[in-house]
Amino acid sequence: MKVLIKLFLCAGVLGVLLVGCGTTRTYYSDAQVIGPYTPAIKVGDVLYVSGQVAFKPGTTELAADDIEVQTRQVLDNIKSILANAGYDMSDVIQSTVYLKDINDFTKMNQVYGTYFVQGRYPTRTTVEVANLPRKARIEITAVACKSK
Q: What is the rounded CA–CA span in Å between residue 141 and residue 82?
């Protein structure tokens, strides 16, 4: 009997931990991709946006080699994916920025800040990486959540 009670309790705890895994998933794949991944997946009220580089809309061609131009293009691409899923930039709660050269941080940061409401910025991690797809200078991922 004690074993059955322990099994029941363990199953209940596991069920609580995995409750989000049972939520319906919606896949958004209208954006141009260069591999086997989905640009965005919605789970519950949360939208996970895959890393975006500065592809010009509908192509796999990068915008100019300038960090400011590429940052704008990446954020415009994210904005488009969000809109396709019924979200906007104000719904972004977290992002990760990958820079080929950390010396581009200040220029990237100036452009990045214009896409969000001052004082309501998402959390963010910024790291320098050895390389990015198609020799891009920047890649950004995002997580958005609809407020209730």
A: 12
Report DSSP state, residue 87: -
pTM metric for this prediction: 0.83
Question: Tell me: the pLDDT tens digits for 23-34?
Answer: 899 999 876 678
Superfamily of domain 23-145: RutC-like (3.30.1330.40)
* Tokens coding 130: 């050895």
Annotated domain spans of the chain = 23-145
Q: Can you give the length of the chain in residues?
A: 148
Residue 129 has pLDDT above 90, yes or no: yes
Query: What torsion do the CA atoms of 90, 92, 94, 98 make, to the nearest 10 degrees?
Result: -100
pLDDT tens-digit series, residues 111-120: 999 999 999 9
For the chain, list the strands marked E by DSSP: 25-28, 40-43, 46-52, 92-99, 123-128, 138-145
Phi, psi of 89 (to 5 degrees): -60, -25
